């Protein structure tokens, strides 16, 4: 039945009275009209003009559902999932499955919800995630929130705070207050995103304006933590976010899916990659690995002074090195020392941001030795190091015990080596020697670079790390 006929059915109920309108629907339904069967099911399900009767509602929903009516299949599935008055069996649940496979996002969400609750089906978190994802990708806000929670709690999927934040953001940008509050928590704690209390408070403001009780409480806590000046800055940021959302809404083509709201601005995009870098001049020159920034359209750098933008100045692909420049600010910098004095077996370390989606955004320190004065295949440009590194450590400075940069972490032996040797390599990693970095940095250092520490002033390892940490940065690639 076309939309006009559907409107006529409701008009009959309104103009002829409940009994007459129902009779018209029953007549059309008895003749096999799926739309009338669906609407008759709605009357019984909601008790509109007839006593509420879920058994009759189920009967009419099933007739329409058997004809492929997606809304009826969804409504039937929701009855089986949520109503104790109707028996739930594996045979009956096929109606909702049928609607879901035909692409109805609401039906998919209902099915996910049923699996997650274990109501009418064996509890199966992986199945819930599968169906939440399909509905979430079609823009279903509730499914997006629930998928975010699945990732946040590690139910049905490995715990992944970055993925959780991605789905919270999609729902938040469609106006869901609970997702906005969750996004505020993520920014406030650095959970899945770089810690940014202003951004977190801004999202709390937006959620609180919608009446979310949790956001109201979190806003008060955050305001007390950051003080009046940053509270005012967060209020301005809230206005900016709302303006960006409105602009995106007005510019979005009518046929564009709702979940494309995640593209509202560069500020809210999810990075496609990350790595580590080291500030090596007070003006904000950053040394990192070339492969970290390869293909980047835009860079954001998490520094001790907050998130900064940066541009790529120079790339040495042959040696896997790159020089970036932070757009503004004055920074604490690490000295770069020549590599000629480095000795086999000496202690080295790196500070970096490995696997931020799992391990978080706080810096991680690892320690080891110079295992070889040459790299893989006796490459003279690199050190072999026993410092444990993981994805995300790439581009990080290799530090000696005095806090000098003597190399840049670039690679590790992994699965390819394991397949070739039949054994998994243990802490066989590589760093490009600082000599090659100095050649690349020569045009940018000058008086803005600190002099290397000659080792006459001894530092404990902990003090060296504390001194170096403000100069280590997380690079987010967009």
How would you describe this protein?
With about 475 residues, the protein is of the alpha+beta class. The protein is about 45% helix and about 15% strand. It is built from 19 helices and 12 strands. It has helices spanning about 5-15, 20-30, 35-45, 55-65, 70-80, 95-100, 105-115, 125-135, 140-155, 160-170, 175-190, 195-210, 215-225, 230-250, 290-295, 355-360, 415-420, 435-440, 460-470, and strands at about 275-280, 285-290, 300-305, 305-315, 320-325, 345-350, 365-370, 380-385, 395-400, 405-410, 430-435, 470-475. Strands 1-2-5-4-3-12 form a 6-stranded antiparallel beta barrel. Helix 12 (about 195-210) packs antiparallel against helix 13 (about 215-225). The longest helix has 24 residues, at about 230-250. It is elongated, with a radius of gyration of 30 Å. The model is unreliable at about 1-15, about 80-95, about 255-270 and about 415-420 (pLDDT under 50).
Quaternary structure state of the chains depicted: single chain
Structural class: alpha+beta
The average pLDDT score comes to 79
Overall body shape: elongated
Major β-sheet annotation: 6 strands, antiparallel, barrel
Summarize this, please?
By secondary structure, the chain is α+β, with helices and mostly antiparallel strands.
Write the layout of secondary structure elements.
Blueprint: H1 3-16, H2 18-30, H3 34-46, H4 54-66, H5 70-82, H6 94-101, H7 105-117, H8 125-137, H9 141-153, H10 161-172, H11 177-189, H12 197-209, H13 213-226, H14 228-251, E1 273-279, E2 285-288, H15 290-293, E3 299-303, E4 306-316, E5 321-326, E6 347-352, H16 356-359, E7 364-372, E8 382-385, E9 397-399, E10 405-412, H17 415-421, E11 429-433, H18 434-441, H19 461-468, E12 472-477
Antiparallel strand pairs: 1-2, 1-12, 2-5, 3-4, 3-12, 4-5, 6-7, 6-9, 7-8, 8-11, 9-10, 10-11
Helix pairs in contact: 1-2, 2-3, 3-4, 4-5, 5-6, 5-7, 6-7, 7-8, 8-9, 9-10, 10-11, 11-12, 11-13, 12-13, 12-14, 13-14
